[in-house]
């Protein structure tokens, strides 16, 4: 009797679960059909399920929050080593990795901004030589740089978000005949936008002294692009040094893997014995000091 009741209960539970899945999948079929036809367009069969947007959101979070990958690694080490120390190490590593990722993103943003300033100089020079007045040439250059950075900005009213908070001042000065050099100098305070101060100087000299603005901006563009080439050459020369730093940083991990392959159980020794804990603390301090010093040396070589 008990077996029959349990079988009927399992069948009833399966039937309820199937009905719930069907109701969720078939909810608002008219709205879904209208959205597919008039908003999203035809959708591939493998993207039609509800799991696809969720998978995209998970992938986006995994890319944007890469520092949280330290947590599953710490959990795995804690399970393998039967200790809570890897969990504390993972909690400490999350803000450190986040800071490192943000620093790298800021450096890339500065480099992109510097490249955009050089492109702006070239665009303005082209507009000036085509017969445009300086204000309209600057507006056209800003619009072109904004369109290159964001395809949705093509054909828009102009301006580039890469100018930061000073964007409105530059646009207003260029459109209504304001103090363009002052607006450019204000925008040059942003990260990677130092080349705008040279553009402001060229503008001021052209207005006050009557010099050719196109010639000055052309020389400024060449100087900025030459600086970019020197930066890329220096980065290529330092690639070997960075590879050495990475290899040295991964040597302890390789040693742990080799010890585990030989059957020495290094995690148990490091996490559960006094001598192992002492060696682990000293090794972590030496590893951190070595990485800091090596990165400082290489960063010093990258400095202009």
UniProtKB/TrEMBL annotation:
Localisation per UniProt entry: Cell membrane
GO cellular component terms, semicolon-separated: plasma membrane
Principal place of residence: membrane
Record keywords, A-Z: Cell membrane, Membrane, Transmembrane, Transmembrane helix
Domain Type II secretion system protein GspF: 161-256
Pfam families: T2SSF (PF00482)
Bilayer-spanning residue ranges: 7-25, 73-97, 238-263, 275-295
Topological relation to the membrane, as annotated: Multi-pass membrane protein
UniProt protein name: Type II secretion protein F
Lineage: Bacteria, Bacillati, Actinomycetota, Actinomycetes, Kitasatosporales
């Amino acid at each position: 009797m008990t077996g029959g009741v349990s079988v009927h209960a399992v069948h009833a539970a399966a039937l309820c679960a199937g009905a719930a899945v069907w109701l969720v999948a078939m909810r608002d079929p008219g709205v879904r059909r209208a959205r597919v036809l008039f908003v999203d367009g035809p959708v591939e069969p493998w993207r039609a399920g509800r799991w696809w947007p969720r998978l995209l959101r998970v992938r986006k979070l995994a890319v944007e929050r890469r520092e949280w990958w330290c947590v599953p690694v710490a959990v795995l080490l804690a399970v393998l080593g039967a200790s809570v120390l890897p969990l504390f190490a993972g909690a400490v590593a999350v803000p450190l990795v986040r800071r490192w990722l943000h620093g790298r993103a800021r450096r890339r943003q500065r480099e992109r901004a510097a490249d955009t300033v050089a492109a702006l100089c070239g665009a303005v020079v082209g507009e000036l030589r085509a017969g445009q007045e300086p204000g309209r040439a600057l507006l056209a250059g800003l619009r072109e740089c904004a369109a290159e950075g964001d395809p949705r900005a093509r054909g828009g009213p102009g301006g580039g978000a890469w100018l930061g908070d000073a964007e409105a001042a530059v646009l207003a000065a260029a459109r209504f005949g304001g103090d363009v050099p002052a607006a450019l100098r204000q925008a040059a305070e942003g990260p990677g936008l130092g080349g705008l101060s040279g553009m402001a100087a060229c503008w001021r000299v052209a207005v006050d002294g009557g010099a050719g603005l196109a010639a000055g901006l052309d020389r400024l563009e060449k100087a900025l692009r030459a600086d970019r080439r020197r930066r890329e050459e220096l980065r290529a020369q330092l690639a070997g040094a960075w590879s050495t730093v990475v290899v040295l940083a991964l040597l302890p991990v390789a040693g742990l893997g080799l010890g585990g392959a030989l059957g020495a159980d290094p995690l148990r020794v490091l996490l559960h014995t006094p001598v192992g804990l002492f060696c682990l603390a000293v090794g972590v301090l030496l590893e951190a000091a070595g990485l800091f010093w090596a990165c400082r040396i290489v960063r010093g070589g990258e400095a202009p």
